[in-house]
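check this one:
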Amino acid sequence: IAPIMINKEFVEENCKIAPFLYEIVSKIPNIVSCSYSLLKPGTRICPHKGYDDYSEKNLRYHLGLIVPKGDLGLRVCDEIVEWKEGSSFVFDDFKIHEAWNFSECDRYVLICDFVI
């Protein structure tokens, strides 16, 4: 799983692997990063927030691509959000958040960051 864009710069070799995504992302204003995210079964990402110099004015977009059934989700502050295939949500990356996948299958989402 490799990023399509990091810090407003396209990763050329990865754009060649996913040309359809590159074409879409290249037309979106204010986007600063885009990547696929894999969360393996039995994985927990501890509570954290985005980087101070980057995420203070950043919104993070998640689009569920492959979402297994089971105990998996994302907590932002006190709110728990569940991924659903084909559904998306946006949250403030500067707020404390954590993610987990205690299902038995891989979870894939598309993540894009936008400057506000």
